[in-house]
Specification:
Blueprint: H1 2-20, H2 24-56, H3 59-78, H4 83-89, H5 96-127, H6 133-148, H7 153-159, H8 164-188, H9 192-212, H10 223-236, H11 239-257, H12 260-294, H13 299-336, H14 344-369, H15 373-398, H16 402-426, H17 430-457, H18 463-491
Length: 498
């Protein structure tokens, strides 16, 4: 109880300064709170959608959708020029001519990619032996244009740490798309419900962006701005494509090795791990990129923030990983139905991949903020190569869980590579950085102890009871983790966020 009271007092004492202060720390907190709240609501709605849709649609619909998203992402990432990141990172990012040039470059790229996908759809359908993919891909091509045509002033709002309207655009549009997907799934009962829901989601975000940030693009073309954009683009050239190879190779390969039904089981299983990961990654990325950009030359402050955020992620992630191991089958059964429980192993490995990805993403944000995205590109190139080499043997040997085993090998190597890079750039102490991970490992053992005790001393647990036991274990682990974080913060000078 004393630990809980201490945590409560600490939170209460810092609330006023965080909500009303003018420091970067307070602005980041307020922005993160807006984004985080909206994202929690959206992810909860998406999870509810999946619970409903998994019972309305056959698993092969989700397998087909995974192929569609992977194919469109492939083209989407080949020529990514990093318009949003360039506006946030560049000192000229708020200038009208710079924003206008960025808008037209991004839209031109999107139209070109949509045309390529529209024309190439029959070949993709033939490769996977599914004629229906042709029409589905051509509808998905439309979303590429819609996503790139949104108001570019949204990126300026992110640069200025103004996140309230951004949350309404991103997550409000997402919630509208989710609701429409559920309605269409009830009537259509096939993959078209998912595709049309995706298109509706993009359209809602497009409309919301112009309602909240009105913008009328002019035909002015700033040559200097274009050169700066292309210079930044050269630093990330091929980065998105390499990221795609790392993140989607499992889908491309497994779609050839396994039927769409098995692929759908795999996709829905790993989605459970990726849902909280996406929430944390998007929220932290949108808040920390502008924060680090404001502190580009202050290596020690960047290191303090990086260690604090990474410590928090580890303390949250390791107990959740233990929960996925002991309760994954029960969670899949309750969420989607008993037939999806065969994806338990994939879910467990995906949870470990998610923790490493979150830690890796914070280092990537440092590289972007300092205008050095090429450093991340080298890491992703290494991960892509490993993924290409490992995916087929892993998928054959480990079954549908093999896709995540290959991801785990790749992301572990990339993470170590990036740690070494950031140490050279900011002077990060690996000892200071790694200490919280050891402490978090000890705290997460409470989940293991509680779950094992329940299995040893009680009758076989039903799914709901098993999940409840896991939740209790996580609660105990998080209380212990919070106490450890508080003590380490007190022991370290300058330990609070700047």
């Amino acid at each position: 109880m004393r630990v809980i009271r201490e945590l409560s007092n600490r939170l209460k004492s810092g609330t006023e300064s965080l909500f009303y202060g003018g420091s970067i720390r307070a602005r980041v907190f307020r922005g993160g709170a807006s984004l985080g709240t909206a994202s929690v609501v959206e992810q909860a709605v998406r999870f509810g959608r999946n619970m409903i849709v998994a019972r309305l649609l056959a698993p092969n619909a989700f397998g087909t959708m995974a192929i569609l998203l992977s194919a469109s992402s492939l083209l989407h990432t080949i020529t990514d020029i990093g318009v949003r990141e360039a506006i946030i990172q560049n000192p000229r990012g708020t200038e009208k001519r710079f924003v206008n040039s960025a808008f037209w470059l991004g839209l031109l790229r999107a139209c070109s990619l949509a045309c390529i996908l529209f024309i190439g759809a029959p070949w993709i359908a033939q490769f996977y032996g599914n004629v229906e993919l042709t029409r589905l891909l051509r509808v998905v091509a439309l979303t590429i244009i819609i996503d790139s045509a949104g108001s570019p002033l949204v990126s300026i709002a992110t640069k200025n740490l103004k996140f309230y309207r951004l949350a309404l655009i991103n997550h409000g549009g997402g919630i509208c798309g989710v609701i429409l997907t559920v309605i269409m799934s009830y009537y259509l009962r096939d993959v078209w419900a998912l595709v049309l829901g995706l298109t509706a989601e993009s359209l809602c975000r497009f409309v919301f962006s112009y309602v909240l940030y009105p913008y009328w693009p002019s035909l002015q073309w700033d040559g200097e701005a274009v050169r700066e954009l292309l210079k930044f683009s050269r630093g990330i050239a091929g980065l998105s494509f390499l990221n795609l190879i790392f993140s989607r190779t499992d889908i491309f390969v497994m779609a050839k090795l396994y039927p769409a039904t098995q692929l759908g089981l795999y996709a829905m299983a790993i989605y459970l791990a990726q849902t909280p990961t996406s929430f944390l990654m998007n929220t932290l990325g949108q808040t920390l990129l502008p924060t680090f950009s404001h502190l580009q030359q202050e290596g020690e402050r960047i290191n303090r923030i990086l260690i604090k955020v990474s410590s928090l992620l580890v303390f949250l992630g390791l107990p959740a990983l233990a929960f996925a191991y002991f309760c994954g089958r029960s969670l899949l059964t309750l969420a989607y139905g008993a037939r999806y429980s065969s994806g338990t192993n994939a879910l467990t490995v995906a949870a470990l991949v998610a923790v490493l990805n979150l830690l890796n993403a914070q280092i990537t944000t440092v590289f972007y903020a300092k205008g050095l995205p090429q450093l991340h590109r080298r890491s992703v190139a290494l991960m892509a190569i490993i993924m290409i080499i490992a995916i087929y043997p892993c998928a054959k040997f480990f079954g549908i869980a093999g896709g995540q085993v290959a991801c785990l090998i790749a992301v572990a190597v990339g993470y170590v590579f990036q740690l070494e890079r950031v140490r050279r750039i900011t002077g990060l102490s690996l000892r200071r950085y790694g200490k919280p991970m050891l402490l978090a490992s000890a705290a997460s053992l409470t989940v293991v102890a509680v779950c094992l005790s329940a299995r040893l001393f009680t009758v076989p647990l039903q799914p709901s009871t098993n999940i409840l036991v896991g939740v209790i274990g996580c609660f105990i682990a998080y209380v212990l983790g919070g106490a450890i974080l508080l003590r380490s913060s007190d022991a370290e000078p300058g330990g609070s966020l700047p």
